[in-house]
Amino acid sequence: TSPRPYNFSAGPAAMPDAVLERAASEMLDWQGSGMGVMEMSHRGKEFGAICTQAEADLRFLLAVPENFHILFMQGGGLGENAIVPMNLSRGTRADFIITGSWSTKSHKEAQRYCTANIAATNAADQHTRLPDPASWRLSDDASYVHVCSNETIHGVEFQELPDLAALGSKAPLVIDFSSHVASRPVDWNRVGLAFGGAQKNLGPAGLTIVIVRDDLLGHALDICPSAFNYKTVADNGSMYNTPPTWGIYIAGLTFQWLRAQTEGELTGMAAMEARNIAKARLLYDFIDASPFYVNKVDPSCRSRMNVPFFLNDESRNDAFLSGAREAGLLQLKGHKSVGGMRASIYNAMPLAGVQALVSYMREFERSHA
Ligand code: PMP
């Protein structure tokens, strides 16, 4: 089969060929069971084995400590914007660090459930740099502090998670890691809860991953739906209601694929982090060296996953995109709220895909400058 085009979608996004091929080969009959995964009871032994393995592989990959629960839920990132305050806020106060569109949405939604305080914002910088943690005005009594650790639209990433304890806060840190989950290791010493939709780096839309420290369970507001009560979900091993079985299966295949990745001596998350740094550097270095393209994000917090960029002459946007499609480079159009272009280069994007993009950009510049 001929290689597929490189797909730079921000999500749902490209998946590793090996994962899709494996799923295709098992579509009608999973390992001699006579059933496809979509057709299995979530309570049967076959799916039980798939789910247990997926959870164990994710725990291994992200080095999730024993006192954290891994939950497979539904509702997506925006669902979690309500589910987190319903479970963690106790109706009191929570702090939000505004760094782009997604944290802005999280803050707005939380206002329905608690006093949502903006402790810092980079809005005045058009979301192009992170507010210095030393300047955050954290509440003494916050039930949690929310951060979007990778802003998918603005292309801003926390290269290092904030250390709330060092900032004098006792509140647990909540991270929305939807768009960089499993692209690098997680420092769990600094995190109380992490959530993310699967549809960028892990699998199909419909699966939401929540990783939560056990002391944060059991404080949900009465209005919290049972299916979204973390304690209920945890007590039932993510089987309180029917979990997104297909998503868990595909994410499980992706976890196995990730575990097997290597870069030199490195494996798993360390390998992916090294590869993702190399991919991002190649693209940012090219953009910075060119007078034809621009990325406006401060180099200290540029996302390794989502690279928004602009042509200096925006009248060439359509020509750029149609030429890219012809060159086998798909879905490079930027988010409508910021315009321009965006190359999302998640785990499934090989270095060769970024090299192909840079070659195309160089050639487009040469022929249009
Ligand atoms: N948070 C982030 C960082 C995202 O990138 C997205 C989706 N682009 C969301 C939340 C929303 O996720 P969903 O569409 O699954 O609700």
UniProtKB/TrEMBL annotation:
Pathway(s) annotated for this protein in UniProt: Amino-acid biosynthesis; L-serine biosynthesis; L-serine from 3-phospho-D-glycerate: step 2/3; Cofactor biosynthesis; pyridoxine 5'-phosphate biosynthesis; pyridoxine 5'-phosphate from D-erythrose 4-phosphate: step 3/5
Cross-referenced SUPFAM superfamilies: PLP-dependent transferases
Gene3D superfamilies: Aspartate Aminotransferase, domain 1 (3.90.1150.10), Type I PLP-dependent aspartate aminotransferase-like (Major domain) (3.40.640.10)
Cofactor(s) listed in the protein's UniProt record: pyridoxal 5'-phosphate
EC number: 2.6.1.52
Catalyses which reaction(s): 4-(phosphooxy)-L-threonine + 2-oxoglutarate = (R)-3-hydroxy-2-oxo-4-phosphooxybutanoate + L-glutamate; O-phospho-L-serine + 2-oxoglutarate = 3-phosphooxypyruvate + L-glutamate
Domain Aminotransferase class V: 6-357
Annotated positions binding pyridoxal 5'-phosphate: 102, 152, 176, 199, 241-242
UniProtKB keywords: Amino-acid biosynthesis, Aminotransferase, Cytoplasm, Pyridoxal phosphate, Pyridoxine biosynthesis, Serine biosynthesis, Transferase
InterPro entries: Aminotrans_V_dom (IPR000192), Aminotrans_V_PyrdxlP_BS (IPR020578), Pser_aminoTfrase (IPR022278), PyrdxlP-dep_Trfase (IPR015424), PyrdxlP-dep_Trfase_major (IPR015421), PyrdxlP-dep_Trfase_small (IPR015422)
Modification N6-(pyridoxal phosphate)lysine occurs at: 200
Cofactor note as given: Binds 1 pyridoxal phosphate per subunit.
GO molecular function: O-phospho-L-serine:2-oxoglutarate aminotransferase activity
Annotated localization: Cytoplasm
Positions contributing to L-glutamate binding: 43
Family the UniProt entry places it in: Belongs to the class-V pyridoxal-phosphate-dependent aminotransferase family. SerC subfamily.
Function field: Catalyzes the reversible conversion of 3-phosphohydroxypyruvate to phosphoserine and of 3-hydroxy-2-oxo-4-phosphonooxybutanoate to phosphohydroxythreonine.
Subunit relationships: Homodimer.
Protein name: Phosphoserine aminotransferase
